[in-house]
């Protein structure tokens, strides 16, 4: 589903060039749930921005669903992102004066008017994320956990090939974070949704099939749920 080859990203600050990604090779299978962890400045969020087509690499290839993002122009990336990718932000990024239903429907307006079929899909998503009865409640009147549920439904409304999430539980307490992660797991298992999640929280990462650890712009370690020491690693990390 996702193939990254020799991916590099440099940033210029005055005359100083900083290499944030130093040649990343990565493959993510269709239907896989992957967590990316690492200290601040390790390059994990930069990678997510590149996978989302919100930034372009200095060098290397990004292939998603057999399409090369790095070979697209800005307009092509925008269309690809709208049709194939869903993005969940840490700060929700909802339109505060719009209702739950209107926020979820917002990405669909780019492709024309809402049809009855799309309206039914929105209602089904509202039910799936546990927001029944809140269709017409404004986003600024919702709790943080409810807002993140809206953000997840909005990210899924176009039936994306890949769901990307940047610290989706960063602003939530543990109980609410567990509920949100349960939703990710639900869509991953029931719909075989491919998910790539950046997180600093090993508790959140423990929901994933694989944990990819970043350090200084390179992949330092990859831990799979299939590995015999997966549970031991999580326990040691959380101790």
TrEMBL record:
<dbReference type="InterPro" id="IPR017871">
    <property type="entry name" value="ABC_transporter-like_CS"/>
</dbReference>
<dbReference type="GO" id="GO:0016887">
    <property type="term" value="F:ATP hydrolysis activity"/>
</dbReference>
<dbReference type="InterPro" id="IPR003593">
    <property type="entry name" value="AAA+_ATPase"/>
</dbReference>
<keyword id="KW-0813">Transport</keyword>
<dbReference type="GO" id="GO:0005524">
    <property type="term" value="F:ATP binding"/>
</dbReference>
<keyword id="KW-0547">Nucleotide-binding</keyword>
<dbReference type="GO" id="GO:0098796">
    <property type="term" value="C:membrane protein complex"/>
</dbReference>
<dbReference type="Pfam" id="PF00005">
    <property type="entry name" value="ABC_tran"/>
</dbReference>
<keyword id="KW-0067">ATP-binding</keyword>
<protein>
    <submittedName>
        <fullName>ABC transporter ATP-binding protein</fullName>
    </submittedName>
</protein>
<dbReference type="GO" id="GO:0022857">
    <property type="term" value="F:transmembrane transporter activity"/>
</dbReference>
<feature type="domain" description="ABC transporter">
    <location>
        <begin position="2"/>
        <end position="235"/>
    </location>
</feature>
<dbReference type="InterPro" id="IPR027417">
    <property type="entry name" value="P-loop_NTPase"/>
</dbReference>
<dbReference type="InterPro" id="IPR017911">
    <property type="entry name" value="MacB-like_ATP-bd"/>
</dbReference>
<comment type="similarity">
    <text>Belongs to the ABC transporter superfamily.</text>
</comment>
<dbReference type="InterPro" id="IPR003439">
    <property type="entry name" value="ABC_transporter-like_ATP-bd"/>
</dbReference>
């Amino acid at each position: 589903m996702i193939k990254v080859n020799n991916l590099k990203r440099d940033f210029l600050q005055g005359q100083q060039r900083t290499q944030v990604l130093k040649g990343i090779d990565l493959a993510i299978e269709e239907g896989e749930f992957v967590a990316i962890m690492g200290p601040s400045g390790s390059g994990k969020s930069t990678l997510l921005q590149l996978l989302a087509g919100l930034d372009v690499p200095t060098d290397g290839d990004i292939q998603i669903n057999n399409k090369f993002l790095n070979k697209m122009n800005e307009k092509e990336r925008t269309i690809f992102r709208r049709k194939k990718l869903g993005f969940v932000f840490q700060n929700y990024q909802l339109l505060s004066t719009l209702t739950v239903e209107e926020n979820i429907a917002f990405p669909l307006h780019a492709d024309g008017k809402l049809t009855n079929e799309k309206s039914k899909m929105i209602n089904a998503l509202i039910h799936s994320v546990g927001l029944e009865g809140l269709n017409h409640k404004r986003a600024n009147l919702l709790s943080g956990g409810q807002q993140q549920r809206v953000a997840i439904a909005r990210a899924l409304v176009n039936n994306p090939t890949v769901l990307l999430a940047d610290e989706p539980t960063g602003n939530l307490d543990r109980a609410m974070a567990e509920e949100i992660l349960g939703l990710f797991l639900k869509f991953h298992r029931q719909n075989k949704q491919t998910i790539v999640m950046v997180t600093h929280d090993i508790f959140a990462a423990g929901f994933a099939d694989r944990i990819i650890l970043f350090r200084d712009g390179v992949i330092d370690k990859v831990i799979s749920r299939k590995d015999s020491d997966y549970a031991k690693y999580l326990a040691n990390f959380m101790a």
